[in-house]
Amino acid sequence: MARKPLTQPRKNAVQQRSRATVDALVEATARILVREGFEKASTNRIAEKAGVSIGSLYQYFPCKEALVAAVIDRHNAEIMRVVRSALAEVADRPVAQAVRRLVAVAIEAHRIDPRLHRVLAEQIPRTGRLKNIEAFNREAHALFRSYLEAHRDELRVADVELAAFLCATSIEAVAHTAVLHGNEALSDEATDALVEQATRMVVGYLQ
Amino acid sequence: MARKPLTQPRKNAVQQRSRATVDALVEATARILVREGFEKASTNRIAEKAGVSIGSLYQYFPCKEALVAAVIDRHNAEIMRVVRSALAEVADRPVAQAVRRLVAVAIEAHRIDPRLHRVLAEQIPRTGRLKNIEAFNREAHALFRSYLEAHRDELRVADVELAAFLCATSIEAVAHTAVLHGNEALSDEATDALVEQATRMVVGYLQ
Amino acid sequence: MARKPLTQPRKNAVQQRSRATVDALVEATARILVREGFEKASTNRIAEKAGVSIGSLYQYFPCKEALVAAVIDRHNAEIMRVVRSALAEVADRPVAQAVRRLVAVAIEAHRIDPRLHRVLAEQIPRTGRLKNIEAFNREAHALFRSYLEAHRDELRVADVELAAFLCATSIEAVAHTAVLHGNEALSDEATDALVEQATRMVVGYLQ
Amino acid sequence: MARKPLTQPRKNAVQQRSRATVDALVEATARILVREGFEKASTNRIAEKAGVSIGSLYQYFPCKEALVAAVIDRHNAEIMRVVRSALAEVADRPVAQAVRRLVAVAIEAHRIDPRLHRVLAEQIPRTGRLKNIEAFNREAHALFRSYLEAHRDELRVADVELAAFLCATSIEAVAHTAVLHGNEALSDEATDALVEQATRMVVGYLQ
DNA sequence: CATGAATGAGTGTTCATTCAT
DNA sequence: AATGAATGAACACTCATTCAT
Is Metal-binding one of the keywords UniProt gives this record (chains A, B, C, D) (predicted)? Predict the structure, then answer.
């Protein structure tokens, strides 16, 4: 009952151990996913790479999908932290500035862990409960739409929802493709040019 | 080119039979992919649905991936036929007209077999040799870029390659998402509005 | 017999606690056996249902079989209490009366916890040390045989041992099957008729 | 369509091979069941003992239970062949003769493969679809009841159904216990005495 | 060419049991 | 004593692929 009295003994030690095991498992899953792909990510292999017994794996994750979902959630959380803070930051800025920032942030977000992002976006069978990747896109879209609605008087589009869909989809696709499908890493100049042009396209449309 | 003209009938018969077997296998694969997903598409099941023995399947396809690749190729070919003819058709039209037509065609293309398109885009592990889905995108992008280069004097963009990437990526993403991720089928009005706005965005940027 | 009388209270407390833990474990095992069957009765689940750690379970029971054996022993003890007291009660009665009472008691005994009885009789793999269910039968048979030997002069059978085997086996099987394999619970009338006829069969044979 | 023209070529060869595999699997299952018990009868072990790959096992049996069910069916079929023919044989005989024969047959039936019978009766978890063991008992009971009904005028019992239940259950239990739970094999004299006494008990009751 | 029986490495998952804390 | 995290052998089952017929 009495907690945080400077020393959290046993239980905390226990919690730390558990936590370390869980982290090791999620991390091992992500690594295998990135290096060898979804097909090679068997539970036994994950446990082995995590330095944990297969029994322990199933103490913390009810099935293989839960492990992959944890990786997805962790990655999505990182991305959404960046996206949410950017959108909060530009909430009161005019559309031209806001869009430029959001395009830049979309690229940044895709650079957090591009190879993992690629695997999650392209290699995971989107069956059953593993639909979560789109979930985060939906949240990002919704936030962007809220911004546009708040700035409706600056816009010269009739249907804000449609405009939001158009712009958010385009920005995401451009950032995704540029970061993941370019043959080489984007140079700073190329990135600047991309941001500049994408911003021009979107702002030109909205205003 | 001309071979053994005497036994040609026989050989033709054989070739026809082979062709029919191959077609049946590809068709069965596509059907199972659409109806039951990649995970259920085992080679034995495909052979059974195609009314062919598993041995025969391996006479025509060296491995499972080759079968899936054939489905992808067939689908891509259908799409590219539409895209190529549209681009040929608009080759000499002004940008505004051409873009409107291309946006409409992008949507049409995604409607050819949306459920198959979805499976191919989302459910197939993109391991090893199964990268072909992007291949077709690359061709479409290249064709569009050629168009823009031929109409460079109508444009007010500095970097045509970058502009082509931006526009083609956006159009593809918008069409893909609208067709496959909308909760219901797009109405005609919604489609018209989408085409109108996407065209405005792209043309506004290019000119 | 009398040990360390000074620390007895403490020790008693401990013993009581132990006793309670053991009881909880046996009870939990029985409940799971009845409600979910042998296959679901894992040691971890038993410990959980008993509100005891898996470590404690192994402090009191060396292995899973020991737990199941304890359930069997407890159930057998209950049954044998009934059977023994009935046999004591009829020890001096004539055969006709005694048999009628014993048939009734056999049915009563199977009704003590029919679902548990069924699981113990049908679902537990009778491997290794888990043969105990027959043990109780052996004791009941022996008691019945003693009764018959004491009343030998009332009987017109040559081989009392064989007669005891025949009658005890038949009574047990009839009671068992009637209680556990009848589609519905036995009505009072049906039970009466069953007792009447079984008694007639056995007494007719013995006398 | 045209079948049995003296030679059943290919297909027959194929069928023979399949049949041999199936037989080997059922036989291996029975052997392991007898020698090592249900718990040791894993599908991999069965396949190995049958000299067949685990894959082949699953080509012919959809799950482990199906394998065990096949063993049960095979054993039941053997027993029922004996029981059915005995009942057909005695159909027109008077009760006293018929019962003596049936008791003898019950013992014979339990001697067909006593160790297998024991495992099937005692060691197989009677879960789900593995209830078949009782099914054969039901058939034997029904046949016996039919006999009694046909000979009702010879009997002095009020309720033929109840009498059939009583006698069939008793005979089965006595035969089962005598064959399987006696410490040693029954001598011929002991068997004769058992048949004699059981017959006396049952006939005395019926008439 | 066609067949389909056969293969066996590999999968996800369970569970009795141990042992450091 | 009590705890519960950890273990890992074992299980039922799948499926891409081979090869004798």
Answer: no
Q: Give dist(CA D41, CA D124) in Å, integer.
A: 11
Chain B partners of A134 at a C-beta cutoff of 8 Å?
A: 181
Helix axes A10-36, A114-122, angle to 10 degrees: 70
Helices (H) and strands (E) counted in chain C, each on its own, are: 9, 0
Range among A131-135, B15-19, C40-44 with highest mean pLDDT value: C40-44
Domains and CATH numbers, chain A: 9-61 (1.10.10.60), 69-206 (1.10.357.10)
Cα–Cα distance for residue pair C42/B180, rounded to 1 Å: 46
Distance A8 CA to E20 C1' (A): 19
Nucleotide nearest to D15 (CA to C1'): E5
Mean pLDDT confidence for D161-165? 96
What is the average pLDDT score of chain A?
88
pLDDT value for C139: 87
CB B107 within 8 A of CB B175: yes
The tokens for D115 are 């160790």
Residue A130 has pLDDT above 70, yes or no: no
Kindly list the residues from chain D whose CB atom is less than 8 angstroms away from the CB atom of residue C173: 169-170, 172-174
Q: Is A4 left (phi over 0), alpha (psi -120 to 50) or beta?
A: left
pLDDT value of residue C16: 76
Q: What sections of chain D are H helices per DSSP? A: 10-36, 43-50, 54-60, 64-90, 95-111, 114-122, 132-150, 160-181, 188-206
Would you tell me the crossing angle of helices C188-206 and C95-111 to the nearest 10 degrees? 140
Best CA proximity match to D28, nearest among D109, D127, D116, D125: D116
Distance from CA of B15 to the nearest CA of A (A): 36
Does residue B99 have a pLDDT over 80?
yes
**pLDDT tens digits along A25-59:** 999 999 999 999 888 899 999 999 999 999 999 99
Q: What is the mean pLDDT of residues D55-78?
A: 94
* Nucleotides, chain E, CB distance < 7 Å: 1-21
Q: Which residue's structure tokens are 């060898």?
A: A36
Residue D127 clears pLDDT 80, i.e. is over it: no
Q: Tell me the average pLDDT across C92-112.
A: 96
C-beta atoms surrounding D129 within 10 Å: 11
Both tokens of B92, joined, read: 């000499």
Residue C121 pLDDT = 83
